[in-house]
Amino acid sequence: MHFLYLALFILSVKALPHRCTRGQAVPAAPLTPSQTPSNATLGCSVNQTSWQFDHKNHANVTLGDRSFLVHIPTAYCPTLPHALVVSFHGYKANDVRQELITGFSAAGLTLNGRGIVAVYPNGQFGPGKNGNEIIRAWQGAPYSPPGVDDIAFTQQMVQLLSDNLCLDSNRFYASGKSNGGGFTNLLACTPATAELFAAFAPVSAALYAGANPADCNPGRSVPIINFHGLADKIIPFDGQAADSQGRTEYATPNITQYREAWADRNGCADLPPDAGPSLGIFASVSHPYTQTTVKTSNCSEKSRDAVVSGFTVDNLGHFWPSTLGLDSGGVPAPFNATEDGILPFFDAHAFGSA
Ligand SMILES: *[C@@H]1O[C@H](CO)[C@@H](O)[C@H](O)[C@H]1NC(C)=O
Ligand SMILES: *[C@@H]1O[C@H](CO)[C@@H](O)[C@H](O)[C@H]1NC(C)=O
Ligand SMILES: *[C@@H]1O[C@H](CO)[C@@H](O)[C@H](O)[C@H]1NC(C)=O
Ligand SMILES: *[C@@H]1O[C@H](CO)[C@@H](O)[C@H](O)[C@H]1NC(C)=O
Ligand SMILES: *[C@@H]1O[C@H](CO)[C@@H](O)[C@H](O)[C@H]1NC(C)=O
Ligand SMILES: *[C@@H]1O[C@H](CO)[C@@H](O)[C@H](O)[C@H]1NC(C)=O
């Protein structure tokens, strides 16, 4: 792993500020091992990171031939563990675009009552859907760059973040849109990363076979919150056997069945038949926003972390839901996936809090 540290290269301009939330003591020195909570990463007990953050609290960190954009909250405190949200961009997009459409860096957002460290990694360039382009994409799609191990990259990136920032290892989360949502699903299906991240949020996910393997076997019950629009023409809600050009490698599942498969995998099918009105494997249905149906599996008797929550939005296209239409040219969705759905779900699902 040492070559990773040598490969680390930073492009920014200002030292990491020592800012802590008002009212909290600001320790003068790094935590000693006896002061450090067990969920605090190494970055809580070493001296200030060499990472340089600019005036908007961004650092662009390079790891080998990869890069990821890091945003620390205004109230970042280098001796208090913060939650980490990794947000993977879609096909043709990048770190900056993903930060813009998801808003995980917005001021005032919290997990466990503390500001969030939000990270937007860049995919490698692949051949594109036509095979002769140069377009960023994550592992698991027909257009992914061949031979790139994005799971290993993600593990190395989280390790580097853990060593350089003060993070709460019980509160690492993965999310993504479209191709990045498909990759988020692949992380949930993979035992090593199902143990790394406490919960997952695939949005308008491109669930090609490589991202949603038939033998998905995470090794634990995995909390998943999923959003999909009924007007999505890129990844249709009803699924497709092939794309418009007849390419079967572009097959994607019926999203209802995709959610049911997760509930089934999580053991939710074991609910007693008298658990409530018949919703299939789902235990509750609600309409918290206009044009929005939320179905949630309730497997709390088996495991509180088994929850699968599916948001279906009537007129939503292939977008990250936002009332400001940040991803849809200003066309508003009925709610913000980030603030109203994902962060409350993540807050309710941490490791080590049975
Ligand atoms: C860390 O900082 C403390 C003082 O704040 C200093 O005594 C110590 O030598 C530093 N350790 C390293 C490894 O730089
Ligand atoms: C970060 O650096 C990489 C090159 O290492 C570049 O491709 C990427 O666009 C940069 N991101 C930002 C936000 O500047
Ligand atoms: C999608 O799956 C659900 C649940 O099995 C089913 O009710 C629905 O008819 C399916 N939709 C299509 C278009 O096949
Ligand atoms: C889930 O089921 C348990 C009993 O099995 C019940 O106590 C709880 O209220 C249910 N929660 C929801 C959100 O339906
Ligand atoms: C969504 O976020 C925007 C920007 O922060 C905010 O103005 C709006 O009130 C939010 N909407 C909801 C439903 O939370
Ligand atoms: C993790 O550490 C933080 C900060 O010390 C603490 O507030 C939180 O309760 C811890 N969470 C768990 C699950 O241990």
From TrEMBL:
Source organism: Roridomyces roridus
Record's subcellular location: Secreted
Annotated EC: 3.1.1.73
Gene Ontology biological process terms in this record: xylan catabolic process
InterPro entries, per database record: AB_hydrolase_fold, FaeB/C/D
One GO cellular component term noted in the UniProt record for this chain: extracellular region
Name by which UniProt lists this protein: feruloyl esterase
GO MF terms held by the record: feruloyl esterase activity
Highest taxon, organism lineage: Eukaryota
Stretch forming the signal peptide: 1-15
Reactions performed catalytically: feruloyl-polysaccharide + H2O = ferulate + polysaccharide
Alphabetically ordered keywords of this record: Carbohydrate metabolism, Hydrolase, Polysaccharide degradation, Secreted, Signal, Xylan degradation
Source organism phylogeny: Eukaryota, Fungi, Dikarya, Basidiomycota, Agaricomycotina
